[in-house]
Each structure stands twice: as C-alpha cells, then as structure tokens.
Amino acid sequence: MTDNQQVPFGSGMFQGQAKFVDYAHMNQQEVQVNTLDEPVMDTLLRDINMILYKLSYVIIPRMKETQGRKLRNWDLWGPLLLSLLLAMTLGINSNQSSDTIFGTIFIIMWGGSAVITVNAKLLGGQVSFFQSVCVLGYCVFPINVAAVLITFLQSYLGFFLRLIIVGAAFLWSTFSSLSFMSSMMNEEKKVISVYPIFLFYMFLSWFCIFI
Amino acid sequence: MQIADEQQDVQHSIPDLDNVNIKLGDDEKKVNQISSNTVSQVQQPQQVNIPMPPLPQKTADPSFLSQLFHCLFKGLAIFVFFIPEGLLNLTYCFIVVVILSAIDFWTVKNITGRKLVGLRWWSEVKEDGSEEWIYESQVANFIPNPFNSNVFWFAQFGVVLTWGILILLDLIGLRWFNAVLAMTAFCLTGINFVGFYKCRGEHQKKAKEYMTKIGLKAIQQW
C-alpha cells in the first residue's frame, strides 16, 4: 500500500475514505503533527480548546462559512454535556416526574438532531452526519443558559419575563445554526432544510417555558 | 581486535596476513598462522555497504498507570450499570454510565491507545463534506510490550462482549431502559475497538512491508 493512499471505507450514509498515515516515508513538510508521542496534557488541552472554539462560534454566530472551517472537526462532547445539562435542569424544574422529563428531552435532542441531519442529507446537502449533529447540539447552548437562568431565578421572574428570555435564546440558537446549515445547502432547498431546525429549537424552548 | 592481553605478542589483530609473527616456534607459528588465517578470512572487511537495519525498538516498559486507566472507567461503568434500582435512581444511573463510557472512549482513543500499543485513529471531514478516517501508528519496527498489548486488547474486546451480552439479556428480559443504555455503551466501546483493530491491521502491513524491504536490500547486496 502506497503512502497516504485512500481506500473506500464504510457504506451508505457513513461512507468515507480511509487514509493510512505512514511516517517512515513522509518528508519533513508532509509530516502532520505527530500526535503519537505527545504528552497527555497536550491532547487534553487541544480537545478543550476545540470545544471552547465551537462554543465561541455559537455565542458569536458568524455568517461566513470560511471562518467556520474549524467546525469540521466535529466532536460530540458539547452535545452530550449540553443535552445532559438541559435535561437535568428541566427535570429539576418540572412538576411531573423528573425521570420522564429527562428521558423525553434527551431523546428529543438526539433524535431531533438525527432527523434534521437525515433531512438535510436527503435534500442533497454536502454535510457529514456527525458534523451536523455536532453543530445542532452546540447551538442548544443559549437555550441551556435560559433554562438555567429560569431555574435559579424562578421566584423573581414573571411569566412574560420568562417568555422574553426564552424567546431571545431561541432566536439566538436558530441564528447560530442557520449560518452553518444554510451554507451547506442549495439556494432553493434552504428554507425546507432550515424549517425543521426552527421547529426543533422552538420545541425545546417550549419545554423551558411550560414545564 | 585484541583477544587477550597475555597474547599481545601474538598478533591476532586484524588482518595483515603479511605481518604474521615469525618469531615464535614452529608449532605456535603454525597455530598462529592458521588462526590468523581463519581470523583474517572471517574478518576481512567487506566492501559492501549494507545499511544496518535499525534494531527493533526496545519494547516499552509495561506502563501500569495507563493500564489502570484503561480498565478503570470501563469497569466502573459496568459496575454502576449493575447497581440495583432501589439504590440508584434510573436517571442517575443513566447519566453516570453514559458519562463514564464517554470518558472511557476518550481515554482509550487518545491516551491509552497511544501509550499501550502505539496506535491512533481519528476522522476528518474534507472540503466536500465526506468523512475521512485516518490511522496512525508508530514506525514499522515498533513492537509494543506484550503485557501492555494483552491488557489493551483483552480489556477492549471483553468490554464489547460484555455490553453485547447485556443488551441481549435486557432485550430478553424486556428491560428497555437498560437495553438502550447498554446499546449506547456498546456503540462507544465497539467503535473504539473497530478503529484500533483497523489501525493495527494497517500497522502490521507496514511492518511486513518494512521487513520485506530490508530482506530485499540484504539479498541485493550479496
């Protein structure tokens, strides 16, 4: 097998290419960061920086796709932690059994992300499955903030104030993920692929207010 | 080459056939000549440049800390899974097992895989959105410590097997919640196992190529 030869790998939706990195034959210029011997702290910090970068992308949504290139390195830590946090927060808040709420929110978040991604792929979008799930998960962050605020300031907030906070969070989330998703799709199919995202975040925000 | 100090007057040093010591008695002279003949024949420098293949890298010392961490989170996850519902609310059990499995996934993928068996895999997304899986391994003549390697592979495979059996048991016993949890953990450990298995296959191919290359070079030089 020659160096860096690509071979097909996987099937269907998870199809990709596999590349074998051969350090023995690479020139100095070709060698990527040799991550095999790096100290543990480096690995840890690198991943933490990736997570923080993505969070900053959500907080300050940028419309240009070129600036979001680092988003390509998807990781599911953000969606995992955010979904757990959201589900726990809403579970604490609610009148109903917190187990049910937890399960519902968790499944909605992951199932919803999966469905939106499949929708986008079926409409011809050039986005990888995990990357899309990653972005949708990270964009739940504003709704998470709103949920935490509501939980801790429960007694001080009237209904309308809650509505305003959650509304702002919802708009923020949708806008953040729009700039990513719409850049992946063709012009005519943009609306139909963005609409489910709108619904998704609206559903989650609804939970914040009324549960 | 000096064979022994007491024999210094006898010239066993490398090879000057012309300078055989003829001051000794006949027998000794014969012996010397014979032995220096053989010595010189054996040691006549050859004019061929065989690049000495780098010796196999010293196998790494068994690294107990990495082995401990490798098994720790997996074991804890399975342990918490078995805590009965009376003691631990199902929700908290789910959260804890999922978080432990995720931490284990990251640890094995990024740390213990490197330290114990010198392999690494990850995926990148290319410009057109397609995924690319990348495998990385140490240089071709790297041999991991057998203890490390055994612990790594047995633990990983054992855990995948355990979660698989648990899924079956839970499905048969109609405990859906536990089954879903077991499936999640199975997916996480399974993905790691498959990734490393493929990476190891690639490394073995690389090692074989390297050995063939060395063999060919040696044959060419004869």
Automatic annotation (TrEMBL), chain A:
It holds the Pfam family Yip1. Keywords: Membrane, Transmembrane, Transmembrane helix. Residues 71-207 form the Yip1 domain. It is found in: Golgi apparatus membrane; Membrane. One of its GO terms (cellular component) is Golgi membrane. One of its GO terms (biological process) is endoplasmic reticulum to Golgi vesicle-mediated transport. The chain crosses the membrane at residues 74-94, 100-120, 132-153, 159-180, 192-210. It is a multi-pass membrane protein. Signal peptide: none annotated. Belongs to the YIP1 family. This is Protein YIPF. It comes from Paramecium octaurelia.
UniProtKB/TrEMBL annotation, chain B:
It is a multi-pass membrane protein. Keywords: Membrane, Transmembrane, Transmembrane helix. The keyword Iron does not apply. It is found in: Membrane. Pfam families: DUF846. GO terms for biological process: protein secretion; vesicle-mediated transport. The chain crosses the membrane at residues 89-108, 151-169, 175-197. GO terms for cellular component: Golgi membrane. Belongs to the TVP23 family. Its main location: membrane. This is Golgi apparatus membrane protein TVP23 homolog.
